[in-house]
Write a sequence for this structure.
């Protein structure tokens, strides 16, 4: 158990990013994520809003519970009393720690916008945080606390995203696009300020750090302004593209029904 939780450092070598161990582990998590989301989403699609929301409440409690436990253990495991500064929930996937509870517990337009936000970014975060997490799987063994908890929390985000789609909870109203982008922009600003204060790489706004962001980092030559601006621009383009695809699909379904 001490080896799994990494007390004193991991004695095992990391199997490596994109190793068969890495791919097998994250694919198993992704399949479980998809299976649960499809099953529960289709089962609850025609049930009451309260019944649909119960699943999101559980998702919110689990993702925040796992993340809080991770932060506490990492701080306890470290000899540096200021280690918590490098474990703040300020990554793209970390927004779901706030967005999923908002989607589960809020009401009105805030709930609608939060549901849309989780729907848009949950599945992206799940894929980037599992298949694309080069910084984790290159540093830690696959079956370690760091990677197992990270895989679980990222897949809870993906589960919530798919569940919202299959249960029919997403509204994707055009007037909520501004709120969705505002949530993301506010989070990016907070992450960038934190990066400047503690010299870290939240939201991967400073460098790619072994993730697919390295491609963008290399394209702009690691420019201190163009790189973070390009990362944020990619997020906005992704939001716009997601809405466009959603509207195209729903428009075709409406025509087919008529």
């Amino acid at each position: 158990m001490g080896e799994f939780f990494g007390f004193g450092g991991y004695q095992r070598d990391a199997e490596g990013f994109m190793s068969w161990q890495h791919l097998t582990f994250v694919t198993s998590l992704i399949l479980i994520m998809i299976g649960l989301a499809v099953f529960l989403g289709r089962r609850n699609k025609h049930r009451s809003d309260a019944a649909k929301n119960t699943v999101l409440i559980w998702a919110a409690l689990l993702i925040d519970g796992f993340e809080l436990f991770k932060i506490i253990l990492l701080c306890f495991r470290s000899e540096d009393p200021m280690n918590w500064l490098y474990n703040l929930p300020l990554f793209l996937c970390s927004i779901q720690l706030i967005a999923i509870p908002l989607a589960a517990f809020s009401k009105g337009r805030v709930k609608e916008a939060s549901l849309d936000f989780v729907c848009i970014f949950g599945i992206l975060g799940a894929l980037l945080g599992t298949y694309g997490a080069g910084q984790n799987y290159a540093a830690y063994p696959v079956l370690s606390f760091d990677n197992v908890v990270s895989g679980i929390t990222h897949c809870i985000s993906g589960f919530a995203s798919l569940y919202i789609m299959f249960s029919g909870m997403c509204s994707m109203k055009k007037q909520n696009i501004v709120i969705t982008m505002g949530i993301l922009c506010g989070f990016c600003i907070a992450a960038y300020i934190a990066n400047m204060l503690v010299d870290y790489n939240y939201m991967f706004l400073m460098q790619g750090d072994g993730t697919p962001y390295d491609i963008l980092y290399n394209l702009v030559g690691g420019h201190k302004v163009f790189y973070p601006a390009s990362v944020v621009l990619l997020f906005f383009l992704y939001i716009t593209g997601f809405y466009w695809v959603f509207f195209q699909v729903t428009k075709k379904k409406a025509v087919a029904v008529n």
About this structure: The mean pLDDT is 88. Residues 20 and 118 are 30 Å apart (CA to CA).
